[in-house]
Write a structure and sequence with these properties.
The protein contains 20 helices and eleven strands. It is an alpha/beta fold. It has a seven-stranded mixed beta sheet with strand order 4-3-2-5-6-11-9. Strands 1-10 form a two-stranded antiparallel sheet.
Length: 495
């Protein structure tokens, strides 16, 4: 009888759960109570009031007037209201830099850490008010400056540049949304033509970067960069990187910073560029978290140099997602408080760290490594190798997986210093490379089951190629063809 009651209660639970899901899909269930909606509305109104007060009292008068001016593209809204609408959708980091002091601070950090050369072009992916582009042009540190606007509705708020630097700043003729680039790559493949193609030289032989990009970044864009660099040898002309190693100063949330590192990296900003040895030590000191050790974080750590440059106050970016107080924050004291969570990290304690830093954006330096320590002529093999290990649990042992691919691999790996008890959770970047190198150098590699698994994966991954003229005109033609193709497909669906 007891077992029947237990079965009945479980069945009723499943039925109610399914019914609830169905009602939610049909719109019969209210997602939030009126009290919850009222609280959210009050909170949003408070943030808007504080935000407006910040614009009127703390920003230069010229910028405040420009933000409150009526938009020419959306007649019933001011420029500030257009920017505020960023908060109603899209990715967390989408915002506009409005504080000249913040733009000066970012430029100082860029100049402290850049590896630029005489021909390096500065790309201002923040655009908005042109504050960063203006500062860079006046510094005279880069050969030229290009402004990449991410939203056509923001063309109204571009601050007029000083006459002595106006000829050194170009407004790029295409809207460039890096988050959108990542989304389209998922739909159309890694070699989908992006607006950045005409900006990257076709033949770049210098070791210094062809361009330095500063922009806010979402996690999908960094994933796209990772896969684009991994497969760049397959089609150098259509890769996002072509034959060069650009450098990126990306503004991201603390959550994104943790995710690309696969755990908790050093939270102390570097005052000067770290050496190769310091970068390696920093990666070894990262507290890896099983919940974040996915394929893309493994590959990112393998392929890119990455470190924290600064923590930028989020008050200087609009829209505000939360109420950002104007009190100065002691970041060192906050770090000491955060470190108390390090001894017993869990999803809850990590979430607390995110919340403690939600008033700051991390300014992170990222550049492809010059020496990977492994041959990338067959990127799909490395992709499949890392993906297979990343799907294992942190407590799973490594040797049986490799032994399943090639019989006898276990003995070879034991000779390299690994044991039958070595787990996935213990594997560092240098271990991954060592294991992969041992695998592909094995005499039976080409006849192994690994090859069969890799070939199967290639049938499903989205690494399609295309043809594109790298000139701006050629890019326009290609994009027009794609837009027309999308319209034709949409009209067929409608019919």
């Amino acid at each position: 009888m007891a077992s029947f009651s237990k079965w009945l209660s479980c069945t009723q639970y499943r039925l109610s759960l399914n019914s609830g899901r169905r009602n939610l899909q049909l719109g019969f269930v209210r997602r939030k109570s009126s009290k919850e909606n009222a609280a959210a509305s009050t909170s949003k109104k408070l943030v808007s009031e504080k935000e407006l007060q910040y614009v009127e009292t703390e920003l230069p008068k010229q910028i405040a007037l420009l933000l409150k001016k009526k938009s020419s593209t959306k007649k019933n809204l001011s420029n500030l209201e257009v920017i505020r609408n960023f908060g109603n959708g899209g990715y967390q980091e989408k915002s506009v830099l409005v504080d000249p002091g913040i733009s000066q601070r970012i430029l100082r950090k860029v100049l402290d850490h850049t590896e630029k050369g005489p021909d390096t072009v500065f790309l201002d992916g923040e655009a908005g008010l042109n504050l960063l582009a203006s500062e860079v042009a006046q510094s005279g540190e880069f050969s030229s400056v290009k402004v990449l606007e991410k939203d056509p509705n923001l063309l109204d708020v571009h601050v007029e540049l000083p006459e002595d630097v106006a000829d050194r700043v170009d407004l790029y003729p295409h809207v460039v949304s890096f988050h959108q680039i990542a989304r389209l790559a998922v739909l159309h493949g890694l070699f989908y033509p992006t607006p950045v193609y005409p900006l990257v030289p076709d033949a770049w032989t210098e070791d210094y970067p062809p361009y330095t990009l500063v922009t806010t970044s979402s996690l999908p864009f960094i994933k796209y960069l990772t896969m684009s660099w991994l497969y760049s040898s397959q089609n150098p002309k259509l890769s996002f990187f072509k034959d060069s190693r650009p450098e990126y100063f990306l503004l991201m949330t603390m959550k994104t910073f943790f995710q690309i590192n696969g755990g908790v990296p050093s939270l102390t900003p570097w005052k000067k560029k770290p050496t190769e040895t310091e970068l390696k030590q920093m990666k070894d000191d990262t507290i890896l978290l099983p919940m974040m050790m996915v394929k893309n974080s493994y590959l990112f750590r393998l392929l890119f140099d990455c470190y924290l440059v600064d923590m930028i106050p989020r008050r200087g970016f609009i829209p505000w997602r939360t109420n950002l107080e104007d009190d100065e924050v002691d970041l060192q004291m906050r770090l000491e408080d955060v470190k108390k969570n390090f001894s017993s990290l869990s999803s809850h304690s990590v979430k607390n760290i995110y919340q403690q830093y939600e008033d700051h954006l991390m300014l992170v330096y990222i550049r492809p490594k010059s020496e990977l320590g492994v041959e990338l002529s067959d990127p799909a093999s490395l992709d499949y190798f890392v993906d297979t290990l990343a799907r294992k649990s942190a407590t799973a042992t490594v040797l049986p997986t490799l032994e399943n691919w090639i019989s006898g691999m276990g003995i070879q790996l034991i000779n390299l210093g690994y044991s039958v008890f070595t787990t996935v959770g213990e594997i560092q970047c240098q271990d991954l490379l060592k294991l992969y190198q041992a695998l592909i150098n094995h005499p039976n590699f080409h006849n192994s089951t690994f090859q069969a698994g890799r070939d199967t994966m290639l049938k499903y991954i989205n690494v399609r190629e295309g043809k594109i003229d790298s000139s701006a005109e050629g890019f326009e033609v290609t994009m027009l063809k794609m837009r027309n193709e999308k319209k034709r497909k949409r009209s067929k669906i409608m019919k």
